[in-house]
TrEMBL record:
GO terms for molecular function: oxidoreductase activity. The keyword Repressor does not apply. Transmembrane segments: none annotated. InterPro entries: KR_dom (IPR057326), NAD(P)-bd_dom_sf (IPR036291), Sc_DH/Rdtase_CS (IPR020904), SDR_fam (IPR002347), SDR_oxidoreductase (IPR051911). This is NAD(P)-dependent dehydrogenase (Short-subunit alcohol dehydrogenase family). Belongs to the short-chain dehydrogenases/reductases (SDR) family. Signal peptide: none annotated. Residues 7-188 form the Ketoreductase domain. Keywords: Oxidoreductase. It comes from Massilia aurea. It holds the Pfam family adh_short. The keyword Oxidoreductase applies.
Length: 285
C-alpha cells in the first residue's frame, strides 16, 4: 500500500456530500488537498483553515476555462497532481419522456462533461510525471438504468465507461483509472440537492417511474451508507499499489452490480443462438 500522506489530491465537488468528507479524511491523513468550490466564500474559508496543506480553487467544473485555470493554479502551487477524485455531480428525477432538452443537457454537463473537463486538464501533467490515479465517481444508478432516473443514469453510465476507457489509454503512462460505483449514502442527494423534471406526465402515475418520483424523497435520512466510512474506503483504493478498474462503494452497490451481471448472463445464454446466427458461413453468406 502507498499512503496518501504527502500526495497532492484534487477533489471536485468538495462543498458537500462524499466530496466534503473525502477532503476532511485526506487532510487527516496528511495528504495535500486541492478542492474545487463554486463560491468564493467557500474558497476563502478553506484556505484560511488549511493555509499550508490545502488549496481552495474557485471553479465550476462545467466551465472548461475555469477548470484549466484552476488546475494551473494547483500545479503552480504544488508542482504536481497525484490523484484526482472526480466527485462533482447531482441527481435528477423524472421519466425520460418528461425531461426537457435543457434539463438533460444540464445533468450531462455536471455529471459527465464536468469530469471530462477535469480529466483533460490534469492529464498533461500526469503524463509528464508518468504517474497518477483518476477516480471517476459513477453510481449504482449509472450501472443500472432505474426507471425514473434515466437521464441521470445515462450521464453516470457515460462517466463509468469513460473511466474504463481511460484505464486502457493511460496504463502505458503509469496512470491508473478507477470507476467507483457508489451506493446510496447519507448525503443530500435525495434531499435538497435533488432536482425533478419540471414536466410531469400523468400517464406515468402508478408506473415504476412515477412511483420512484414520489418515493425517493422519503429516502432522506434512511440511506444505508455513511460518508465517513465511504471516504475511508475511497482512500483505501487510492493507496492500493494496483488500483482496480471497477470498484463498488457500499454493499448495496455491490449487490446491485452482481444482480445485473447475473441477469445479463442469463439473457445472453437464452439468446445465444440468435446472437451467433449472424456469423459468416463457409459459402460467404
Amino acid at each position: 500500500m502507498k499512503p496518501v500522506n504527502g500526495k497532492v489530491v484534487l477533489v471536485t465537488g468538495a462543498s458537500s456530500g462524499l466530496g466534503h468528507e473525502l477532503v476532511h479524511q485526506l487532510l487527516e491523513k496528511d495528504a495535500i488537498v486541492a478542492a474545487t468550490f463554486r463560491k468564493q466564500q467557500e474558497v476563502d474559508f478553506f484556505n484560511s483553515k488549511h493555509p499550508a496543506q490545502g488549496l481552495g480553487v474557485l471553479a465550476d467544473v462545467t466551465d472548461e476555462v475555469a477548470v484549466q485555470a484552476g488546475v494551473a493554479e494547483v500545479l503552480a502551487r504544488f508542482g504536481r497532481i497525484d490523484i484526482v477524485a472526480n466527485c462533482a455531480g447531482a441527481g435528477t428525477v423524472g421519466a425520460v419522456e418528461e425531461m426537457s432538452d435543457a434539463e438533460a443537457r444540464r445533468i450531462f454537463d455536471l455529471n459527465f462533461f464536468g469530469g471530462l473537463n477535469i480529466v483533460r486538464a490534469v492529464l498533461p501533467a500526469m503524463r509528464k510525471q508518468r504517474s497518477g490515479h483518476i477516480v471517476q465517481f459513477s453510481a449504482i444508478g449509472g450501472f443500472i438504468g432505474y426507471p425514473g432516473m434515466g437521464v441521470y443514469a445515462a450521464a453516470k453510465g457515460a462517466t463509468g465507461i469513460l473511466g474504463e476507457a481511460l484505464a486502457g489509454e493511460l496504463a502505458p503512462f503509469g496512470i491508473a483509472a478507477t470507476v467507483l460505483t457508489i451506493g446510496v449514502f447519507e448525503t443530500q442527494f435525495a434531499g435538497r440537492s435533488l432536482a425533478y423534471a419540471e414536466r410531469k406526465i400523468d400517464d406515468y402515475e402508478g408506473t415504476p417511474a412515477g412511483k420512484f418520483r414520489g418515493a425517493i424523497g422519503n429516502l432522506q435520512g434512511k440511506q444505508p451508507n455513511v460518508p465517513e466510512k465511504g471516504a475511508l474506503a475511497i482512500i483505501h483504493l487510492m493507496e492500493a499499489d494496483h488500483p482496480p478498474v471497477h470498484a463498488a462503494l457500499g454493499a448495496d452497490a455491490m449487490g446491485g452490480m452482481r444482480r445485473k451481471m447475473a441477469c445479463i448472463e442469463q439473457e445472453l445464454v437464452e439468446w445465444q443462438d440468435n446472437a451467433a446466427s449472424t456469423a459468416r458461413t463457409v459459402e460467404g453468406v
